[in-house]
Write a structure and sequence with these properties.
The chain has 427 residues and is α+β, with helices and mostly antiparallel strands. The protein has 9 helices and 25 strands. The strands form 5 sheets. Strands 7, 8, 9, 11, 12, 13, 15 and 16 form an 8-stranded antiparallel sheet that branches. Helix 1 crosses helix 3 and helix 2 crosses helix 3. It is globular, with a radius of gyration of 22 Å.
Amino acid sequence: MAKEKQNMNVVFVGHVDAGKSTIVGRTMFDSGLVPEQEMKKLREEAEKHGKAGFEFAYIMDNIKEERERGVTIDLSYKKLMTQKWQITIIDAPGHRDFVKNMITGASQADSAFLVIAAQSGVQPQTTEHLWLLRTMGVKNLAVAINKMDSVDYDEAKFNKVKEDVGKLLKGVGIDPEKTTFIACSGLQGDNIVKKSDKMAWYKGPTIIEQFDLFPAPELPTNLPMRMPVQDVYEITGIGTVPVGKIETGVMKSGMKVKVLPGRTGEGIEGEVKTIEMHHEILSDAQAGDNVGINIRGVGKKDIARGDVICEASNPVPIVEEFIGTITVINHPTVLAKGYTPVFHIHTAQVPCQFTELIAQIDPRTGEVIKENPDFLKNGDTAKVRIKPQGNVALETQKDNAYMSKFAVRDAGATVAAGMCTEIVKKK
C-alpha cells in the first residue's frame, strides 16, 4: 500500500501552561478526528477533576488505546492529514523535568511550533527551548501566541510578545522577519482550524494552514539505515516491538540488521520481520517515519531505549572518544576539563567526560578565538574532546548529521548542546 502523503513530524514546544496540548487537542477536534461524543466525555472528566477547559489537553493525554499499545506518555503521537502532509504531531511536555523527553521530541521533528501564552509572554525557558530546537537542527519554526482570549484579543499585547520573542529568535540566528507569528486561542478555537472573527487585525494563517506552509522535510533516504530506539514494548501475539523514528535510510522487511551497542557493546544481529506504522503493516519504511518493528532473533533483553537499529552491512560506530563542537547554554558556573555530565545522543543517555577543551571558537565564523581555554562559560562555543563512560553509537556531522547531535544535561537543566565532528571507534 502506497502512502499518499509525505509524513512530516511537527513538535509543539513551549513553557508549561502555555497551552500546547490544548492547541493540539483543538486541532484534532476541529479537524473532525475526535468525535463529539468522546469530547463530551472528556469535558465531563475535566469538570469532575475541577479542570474545566482541560478537555482538549486530555485528547493528547488520554488516548487510552494508544497508551496501552505503548505510545509513550512522555511524547504522544497523533496523525493528522492536512492538504499537503500526513502530520505526526509530537506534543512535548514543557515542564522542566520533561526537557529530556523534549530533546528526544525535538530531535525527531522537521518543523516546530513555539507556543507562548499572550498573558505571560516570554518565560525563562523560552530561550532554552529555542536553543534546543536550533541545535537539534529544526530549521522551520512558527510562533503561536496563544490564549489571546485572556488578553481580550488585543493587537498591542500580541505585538509586544511578538517583539520580545523576535529578540530571542535573533539571538539563536533565526530571522524574526521571516518567521510566522500566529494569534490564536486553543481553548476558544480562534485561528486553530477556523479563522477567528474576533481579531480582524490579524491577517496571518491559522495553525492548520501553517502546517502546509512549512517546507517539505528533506528525507535522507540515501544514507545508511538508522533507527534509534525510543521504547521497547512487549505486544501479545507479536513479541518484542522496538518503536522509534527512522532517522536515515530505508528499512525493508527481511533486511539484516544489527542492534548497537546492545547490552554488551558488541551488538546483536537479526532480521526485520514486520514493520508497522499507524497500525498498518508496511513492507518498507523510510527516513522520517515513526514505526514499530519486530526483529527475528532479537528479544526483550537484547534491546533498550538508546540502542540503534542499523543495516548489518553498514553498522553505526561505537565510539571510544569523540570531538564535538558545543555551545554552552546554561551552566551555573563554568565548564572545565574533567566535568562529567549526562549526554543525550539521539535517544541514548550516557555520562561522558570532557577530557580536553581544544579551542574556543567564534560561532559565526568558526575561527579560533583561543586555544586550550581553561574553562567555558554561558554563550561560549568550543571544540572539545569527550570520552563516553559507557557504550554509545554516534556518527560525525559529515557522515550522518542526523546521528551527530547531542545535548548535555546536568541537575535537570540543559547545560550545552552540540554536534560530533570526529570519532575514535572502539577497538
